[in-house]
Amino acid sequence: MTSDLLPFTGEAYMRLNKLTEAEHWYRESLRAKPDHIPAHLTYGKLLAIRYPAALMNLGAILHLNGKLREAESNYLRALQLKPQDVITQSNLRKLWNIMEKQGMRTASP
């Protein structure tokens, strides 16, 4: 398989929720082409699935850039992995306040 196809193989496995296989192919891709930026980005997405701090940080970046729905989704995923994270809880409450002021529906209970 050519090195250009390796990250796509990783992405295909990720979409199938076969995370171990996806990680293998992302690593192979980066071994073949260490400077391949798309492979780094998609591998980062895979790693974020497993790390609540990465999801919370992604949520915060999206939040600050006005991508409120995407921020909410990432905060909620972070809280699924680490429900007692007070920083993520606080960020999510602030986000919900902004969303409600803008007339947006939220996933709040």
TrEMBL record:
Pfam families: TPR_1, TPR_8. GO terms for biological process: protein O-linked glycosylation via mannose. Keywords: TPR repeat. InterPro entries: TMTC_O-mannosyltransferase (IPR052384), TPR-like_helical_dom_sf (IPR011990), TPR_rpt (IPR019734). Coiled coil: none annotated. TPR repeats lie at residues 3-36, 52-85. It comes from the Eukaryota. GO terms for molecular function: mannosyltransferase activity. One of its GO terms (cellular component) is endoplasmic reticulum membrane. This is Uncharacterized protein. It comes from Albula glossodonta.
